[in-house]
Amino acid sequence: MEAQRLTTCPYCGVGCGIAAQPGEARALTLKGDAAHPANLGRLCSKGTALASTVSLQGRLLHPMISEARTSWAAATRLVADTFAQTIAEHGPDSVAFYVSGQLLTEDYYAANKLMKGFIGSGNIDTNSRLCMASAVAAHKQAFGADLVPGCYEDLDLADLVVFSGHNAAWTHPVLFRRLEQARGRGQSWIVIDPRRTDTAEGADLFLPIAPQTDVRLWNGLLAFLDAHGHVDRAFVDAHVAGFGETLAALGADDQSLSAIAADCGLPEKAVADFYRAFAATPRTVTLFSMGSNQSAQGVAKALAVINAHLATGKIGKPGAAPFSITGQPNAMGGRETGGMATTLAAHMDFSPEERDRVARFWNAPRISKRPGLKAVEMFEKVRSGQVKALWVMATNPAVSLPDAGKVREALAACPFVVVSDCMTRTDTSAFAHVRLPALAWGEKDGTVTNSERRISRQRALFPAPGEARADWRIVADVAQAMGFSDAFAWRSQADVFREYAELTGFENAGRRYLDLGALAGLSDAEYEAMTPVQWPVKPDGGTDRLFTDGRFQTSDGRARMIPVAAKGPASAVSPDFPFALNTGRVRDHWHTMTRTGLAAELCRHTPEPMLEVHPADGAAAGLTDGELALVETPAGRAVVTAKFTDRQRRGGLFLPMHWTDAFAPSGKANPLIEAKVDPTSGQPEFKHTPARVAPY
Ligand code: SF4
């Protein structure tokens, strides 16, 4: 029996610590790490079942060129030469990387450095674009950088928690357990969601809001706060810019309670109760997640929430924050290193000063001049032929992107597709010219950042199987084969981490909150023993809460309130497509089920994709509960079992997004979703696609 190892769960943005005991033949016993501040020993069903998912079933263990096994040397040479030749013939923007919130921070850093510093394009984007890009854009506008103000302790300290498009009971179960304890001490909950979710079932007040009317509701709150004397004038005067303009812009709409209630499809009393509770409770946290972000108005929704918190000074104080909760285990690490096309590196963007700083630090020959292609546009450019060489790392866009049928067309048409993944067969790897075997959870070693900015170690529990390698090493080998030897000559993940930490502190002097400079000098042994810490990291430790001094990362130190207008969805329902189709997760599955699909205990909760429909709508459409239904949208069609439930609003449908060709080829959700995105963040509108249903 090997020694117990402390690591981090690979599923969601809660970032729970795990105490793992590896045994013979990849046997594993595990429990929650009682000392990890994110979960204090708790695990949800997915984390608990991890031991059932670490077999080598379905694993890619050797490099492959087409269907032939090859050597690492040959595969690396082919990838490096093809990328180099494509860049030489068509320029740096003819290539792209599509990466993942499943990558470790060290992996992200390596891939971003190669693309933005040495290839010279901004064309690296992450599947986190589908998850929280709208929150990122809103943070940048309001706070001057992508900064999450709060911490999990604020969830314990809040007297009121508002869940705005966030079904925490299913998507972030361990945080939800923590909130349930706080509720036992008197905390109140308000849930804003078009579905009566498990989170809504437990709420003191549930607002079953009409789809895509959140901005109207939150703008109305701001008007109410001002009209009833609840604005914190001292805080606004000292720390906020844009209050007057934002308030003036509200005049474009009727801000009476009755008008807001009518527009949002809510009882007037429920709206009034929400507004009064928010106004009366200094310690209020608003949690927002996919239900808010996955929208063509995702940035506006996040800004509307932030505006209400800034106007009342509910930020930077214990138990008070607008709090974006991320979906993936390391979405935050990608945001930090520069894995998004819209950030250069380490929270620096594309200004001449920041490009110069990063270029000098990397000694980079071709620093990217501008942001690159965001996820949806990236695959559109692949499909149109502008991007001719694509490297997909640790993600499955053929299933997970909107309008997934067109994504498959793009992959099929692309002259050169590389997929690095731990699984032999994914819907995306079917299109790969080269497949590179990557380490999986339990084999990888590095760091991740959770939703409260806490950096934790993922540690290897088992030796690397077959010829699988760490993603950062695969990238570094290709970079070296492209001729960038010195800049990618890392010997270990600790080397990569130290360089990343040093970059965050480079010419920083307190200008950027993202500062891990104090960790740049960690020895290998200190990196190995590293305990969870929240950035910014000072010499004496981490930082739990930001903006406690009212200073934001803008040029004048003030936060910005930004006027946002209430608009409808990108595509309205019509007589042909009268339903609003919403997609999302189920409790026990994760992404495209490559891991959770291996655990029988996780497949029991929701064994197949079910189309949730209100009983009255189902009957009117001629459906039968439990029988097959045909659901069609302008983008595609699916055949799934209908499930009648009054948790669903009239006029709405819900379909989970996990199922793939391997599990339910006719029941995939994302081929149904139109590729409509938020114009600023590029995040797709997964929560509202016009649809129709009929018996199948
Ligand atoms: Fe893993 Fe998230 Fe569950 Fe924690 S809450 S055990 S991080 S899936």
From TrEMBL:
<keyword id="KW-0411">Iron-sulfur</keyword>
<comment type="similarity">
    <text>Belongs to the prokaryotic molybdopterin-containing oxidoreductase family. NasA/NapA/NarB subfamily.</text>
</comment>
<keyword id="KW-0479">Metal-binding</keyword>
<feature type="domain" description="4Fe-4S Mo/W bis-MGD-type">
    <location>
        <begin position="2"/>
        <end position="58"/>
    </location>
</feature>
<keyword id="KW-0408">Iron</keyword>
<keyword id="KW-0004">4Fe-4S</keyword>
<keyword id="KW-0500">Molybdenum</keyword>
<keyword id="KW-0560">Oxidoreductase</keyword>
<protein>
    <submittedName>
        <fullName>Molybdopterin-dependent oxidoreductase</fullName>
    </submittedName>
</protein>
<keyword id="KW-0534">Nitrate assimilation</keyword>
